[in-house]
Design a protein that fits this description.
six-stranded mixed beta sheet, globular, single chain, 11 helices
Length: about 400
Amino acid sequence: MHVYPITVIMIILLVLLPDIYLYSRFMRNRVNKSTKILHWIISSYFLAASFAIFLNINHIVSPTTHYQMTMFVCVLVMVYATKLTFCTFDLIFYKTGKRWRKIQYAGYGAATLAFLASFYAINYGRFDFQKTEETIEIKGLPDSFDGYKILQMSDLHLGSFAKSQKRLEPLFDSINAQHADIIVFTGDMVNNFATECNGWNYVFDKLQSEEKKLAILGNHDYGLYYEWDDEDLKSMNEIAIRQKIRDFGFELLLNDHYLVNRGEDTIAFIGIENWGTSHVWNSTADFPKAYKGTEPYPVKILLSHEPVVWHRKQIKDTTDIQLTLCGHTHGAQFGLDFGKISKLPILKQLRSLEDKIKTYFICRYWDGLYTEGDKSIYVSRGLGCVGLPARLGMAPQYTVITLKKKNNDEGQ
C-alpha cells in the first residue's frame, strides 16, 4: 500500500502537538511525576504504534489484520481529535490574556462533541444504511420501460467490514425487498485483495432481480494500492477479484454492454473499466469498445465508477448516453445532510458552501443527481468506507432509480 510522507507528518503533528501543548499548559508545574510519566507513555505508545503500522503496512494482506489496523487508527482519531479540539479553544483563550473564560468552557464542550461525533461515526454512522429514491425522465424511453426500476449499489469496500457481516444482513434484506428490475454495482467491491470477499457469498445470494445483476470494476478492484513484490501475484489477485464478483452473481462488464429486452423494445447498459485521474495506474477504460453494438437502441445507460468521465471524456456532450451511473466519491464520508429541514435558508447556504468545497477538492459531481439538458448523471455516495471506517452526515446509501418517459415524448 502506498504511504505518502504527508500522512506520516500529519500523524506526528496530530499526536505530538496536542500532547506537548497539554503538558506545557496543565502538567509541567501542576501534577506529580507519575502522572507526567503516564502522559508521555501514552503519547509514545500512539506515536510508536502509528509508525509501526506505516512501516509494515505493505505486509498487511489479511482483511482481519487490516481491520484491526483501521480500528487502531479510529481510536487514535477519537482520542487526538478530542485533544486537538480542546487545545485549539484553550490556545485562543490563552492568547486573549485569559479574559474570556467562556472560550475555555466552550473548548470543553467542543472537545466532548468531537469525541461523541467520532465515536458515532465509527461505531454507528457507517452502519446507518439508507435507501434513497430518484425518478429520472428519459427522452425516447420505450413505453414498456416506463417505470423500470434500477437498484444501484456502489463502493462496498468489503475489507472495511471485516467481522461485520451480521451488521450488513439487514442491508441486503432491504435491497432484495425493493424487487428491482435490475441491480447494478458501480465498482469498488474490495479495498485491495480478493480475500476480502471470503465469507460474503451468503449475503449476496439473497439478491434477486428480474434481469442479471450487472457490475463494473472500481479503482480499488485492481489491487493497485498495494506495492506488490511479484507481478504474478498481482495479476492473480486481480483475476481472483473478478471471479469473486462473478461468484456473487454479477455479470461483470469489462468494456462491454448488456441488452435488456421487453417485448420488441431494448435498452442498453454500457459498462466501462475504470477511468481515473490517479497517478498510481493507467486507465483501462475503452468506451468505443463498450459502446459498439448499442448504436441501434435509443436508450443507453452508462456504468462508470468515476464520475469525471462525464465531463472530461465528454460523455454528456458528444454521445447519446442519456443516463450515467457512478460511485467513487463516497460523498467524502463526512458532510452535511439535513434531510427534511434542508430548505431552511441558513442550511441551504451551508449546503452550498459544502458543495463548493467538495467540487473543488473531489469532483464537480460528488453526490446525487445532476441534469444538464437531456443528459443526467447520478453519483452514489456508496455503502462502504475507504481509509477511515467512519461516516458522519454522509450516511451510506443504495439508490432505487425509476425510469420515466419524458412528458414531451408522450403521444409521439
